[in-house]
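Per your request, structure below.
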């Protein structure tokens, strides 16, 4: 009986993993402590829609990025915090969806939350939307922190995906608590091999990315 259970478990894991390109893994399969909250699998994002290519709340990353993120999680746990992941691998079709959304200037349903001080027509020029994303290479993550004892997310000064200078990692006009929280995230992620994109406090890319190509398989 035990042999049968082991065989079925192994077969399920193998088939689950084999759906992905070589070198990718579902973070949920190897770590149950990192909180997964893929915003693009919901309507709680700057488009106000579920984004093309997101079919589940399953976080997919390169195996190298997964290992590094789990190591960072261990460091945060020791301090009483947990990572919450808003996005990992992002299929190219999702990036194309953002491009199409940006061209419909009348669709501004979530402007007040995510880009109140910027015209939608300027999002490309200002670099908030691009035709290619490092996320599609599989080793970039969008993350924040949750206090384990309360379950509350730390105050980082802006919401995830806020388009504005306020999202710059070291934006000066923040409270001392917000600065400390961003610095904590920055220091631990950097120590575990991730490089921050300075215009987005949540955005980190593995320094030694295993892939330089862009992928387009869906998240399911």
């Amino acid at each position: 009986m035990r042999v049968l259970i082991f065989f079925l478990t192994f077969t399920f894991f193998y088939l689950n993993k084999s759906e992905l390109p070589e070198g990718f893994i579902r973070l949920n399969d190897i770590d149950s402590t990192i909180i997964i909250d893929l915003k693009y699998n919901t309507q709680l994002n700057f488009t106000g829609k579920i984004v093309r290519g997101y079919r589940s709340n399953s976080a997919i990353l390169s195996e190298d990025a997964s290992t590094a993120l789990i190591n960072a999680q261990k460091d945060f746990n020791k301090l009483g915090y947990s990572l919450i992941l808003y996005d990992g691998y992002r299929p190219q079709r999702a990036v194309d969806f953002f491009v199409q959304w940006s061209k419909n200037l009348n669709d501004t349903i979530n402007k007040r939350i995510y880009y109140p001080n910027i015209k939608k027509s300027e999002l490309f020029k200002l670099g908030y939307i691009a035709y290619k994303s490092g996320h599609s290479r599989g080793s970039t993550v969008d993350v924040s922190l949750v206090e384990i004892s309360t379950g509350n997310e730390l105050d980082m000064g802006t919401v995830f995906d806020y388009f504005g200078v306020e999202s710059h990692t070291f934006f000066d006009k923040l409270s001392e608590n917000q600065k400390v929280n961003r610095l904590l995230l920055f220091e631990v992620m950097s120590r575990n091999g991730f490089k921050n994109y300075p215009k987005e406090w949540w955005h980190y890319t593995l320094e030694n990315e295993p892939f330089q190509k862009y992928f387009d398989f869906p998240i399911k």
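The radius of gyration is 18 Å.

Regards,
D.
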